[in-house]
Fold this sequence. Notes:
The chain has an eight-stranded mixed sheet with strand order 5-4-7-2-1-10-13-12. A five-stranded mixed sheet has the order 15-16-17-19-18, covered by helices on one side. Helices cover 43% and strands 20% of the residues. It is built from 28 helices and 28 strands. By secondary structure, the protein is α+β, with helices and mostly antiparallel strands. A hairpin with a 5-residue loop joins β15 (201-210) and β16 (216-225).
Amino acid sequence: MPGENLTRDEARERAALLSVDGYEVSLDLRSAVGEETGDGPRTFRSVTTIRFRCNEPGASSFADLIAPSVTSVSLNGRDLDPGEVFDGSRVLLEDLAAENELVVDARCAYSRTGEGMHRFVDPEDGEVYLYTQYEPADSRRVFANFEQPDLKAPFRFEVRAPEGWTVWSNGVGERTDGVWRFAETKAISTYITCVVAGPYHYVTDSYSRTLPDGTTLEIPLGALCRKGLAPYFDSDDVFLVTKQGLDFFHDHVDYPYPFGKYDQAFVPEYNLGAMENPGLVTFREEYIFRGKVTKASYEGRANVILHEMAHMWFGDLVTMEWWDDLWLKESFADFMGAFALVGATRFQDGWITFANRRKAWAYRADQLPSTHPITADIRDLQDAKLNFDGITYAKGASVLKQLVAYVGQDAFLEGARRYFKRHAYGNTRLGDLLSVLEETSGRDMGGWARSWLQTAGVNSLTPQVLLDAEGRVDELAVVQEAAESHPELRPHRVAVGLYRRTPEGSLERYARAEVDVDGARTVVGELAGTEAPELVLVNDDDLTYCKIRFDETSLAALRAHLGTMTDPLARALCWSALWNMTRDALLPAREFVEIVLRFAGRESDIGVLQMLHAWANSALVHYVAPGWRETGGRLVAEGALRELRVAEPGSEHQLAWARFFATVASSPENLRLLRGLLEGTEKVDGLEVDQELRWAFLEPLAAHGVADEAVLAAELARDDTASGKRHQVRCLAARPSEAVKAQAWAQVVESDALSNALVEATIAGFTQASQRELLAPYAERYFAAIERVWEERSIQIGMDVVRGLFPSLQDSPGTLEAADAWLAAHEGAAPALRRLVLEARDDLARALRAQALAND
Length: 856
């Protein structure tokens, strides 16, 4: 039988043959505690009973299971030989009856990679914590099943756990006779089942709402985290956003929350931001803040809470048939998360964050050689794993924002309501959604879908302004362009804003028009006759998905006056456009850095400011001319320190500038200041150097050889927690030593002893921009190792290694040639691996083009 990588064709064949009536899953997790036994992986017992039907009696199929061993297999009362029917990833099922019962008793392995049943030992108190993470196809690491989204079924879980533990699953559970038994779920897909178990800290609340029929909906709420994080857990704010979100979705989707309770678990060493398991959403525990953070961090957490809540309807209630239509859940959740954030919570500037941060992710992904239509061609599970990307999430959400502008908000929401009622607990394809939108909007959705969902690439919109003899606008047009590789010119509903300086000196909008841009050139007749603008902002108010370009007059206005723009969304759009021009080698990176230094100190939106910090650092590392790096780094560090000292004491802007200063500090003077802030001999008025900030200051000190192993050990003793251990590992790998780099490389590439979180931390410390020469020998080793790593390690670790260790800091044509040589010599390598290398290679080529522009 084939291996782990289930194909779309296999899934379709199995779905045509089988339908599943229900699962009973019994897990014995008592082996999670105690000493290791034996030479193999630590395992637990998993017994699964599946009742299913076959519409072709006598046919053969298979169940999915990834496990070290299988004790027994029984099909319709017949005992099968595990050695004959189980190959390590599939259980062969022959001579099926019309109605079948399969029982599989297996030993499944605990995970250290965040896939399947992840086991974490807290270094602070030695307690063990478990949780599951499955998307797209890792529930088969925990119990036997039919691992594809369109074979939905109800699930009953029972779990034996160590004494003193609590266990949670999708349904309500209770413990009797030492066994946790959970209420049967609705029909759901395998990848959103979930188990969380351990001595977690757990708090409760409740939500109630009177429904239109007069009945009351009661939803028990819970939130949990490791005991060590309990002092920092602001569960009240988590519950506040949760209740606001539930109100919002009930107001807008007209379908009561269908999954009973609503628990939210913040778990350690999580690979994702969060996962939408119905009734038991899991989040990375970094959303519990151990130190002071900015409003942007709280906004980000709230957005994730609402994104996952949107999935209760978009993805859990109605699920895509196969991963081709992943956008039917992720794009909608991304859009609805931002929609709810602005519509229901205190974070009224959520669309600014969306325009500045989420779309930046989409623009990058949409220009990679691996870009794909929003409705993608997903051949197998490895394809599916890599398509949780900026196209599926942020571009899809941006396109839905455009769709709302196109059909109207009322028609869009009414379409969603009909979609849920029509397909509840079922699976859908693109056409199912388009049909209801056609009903509610009266528009033909076919052309829109072809342009926006079934083609790849991002369009650029540039204004053209012609003035008359009196200096007024004679004609204003929008020119649309597309890349040669993806030439589709799309219909856009855009707002065009005209800006001039006021007598007070601020850059403000004085005229605006909405227009449907279609084709290569569209005239905006409504703006003819207006005063000549200093700045034309195409896609003002961010209605569509495009790269904004500027005419020369507008670009000159931004160079001189960007910081005076009073509208925060317009300002964020201009910053984003300038960054895209930098990445596209249309604006020298040095000039972008200089504009940041000139105006970032006036940026009021903290999320935009932190994004500018990240972009400026990226420009310094990758895009400026190598000969200007040292000068640029010094200027940026000086600017960051200047803004740090003048920021309001104790403000979030002060904190953001402190973190940015630590990122770019490299001179002896700056490093001495960081060390003094750590030791208390230096002070910045109002700046509290808490534990998280201490680690932020220690990384550059370690990377520049100022903080040695003893200093880092002492800091770990001060912060002997799981978070502290991750920070220490990153700092240890950051030290500028050949021996340190060799050890870090061996730990990640040659060994699988580290957990996923420590692999991530080691890679982050290893790749220091200040250590290009020290890292140079690893470029050749990278290309020699990655195919073996991909074959031997889990896909998550493989992705971390291939992405994280690509020698992008060796930014020379030679590295580009080495990447091309590897690709040419490995045409038969796994497509997902080739995709990762192609993406990294493209980023490097883009950096070299930007550096060449800077040298012109």
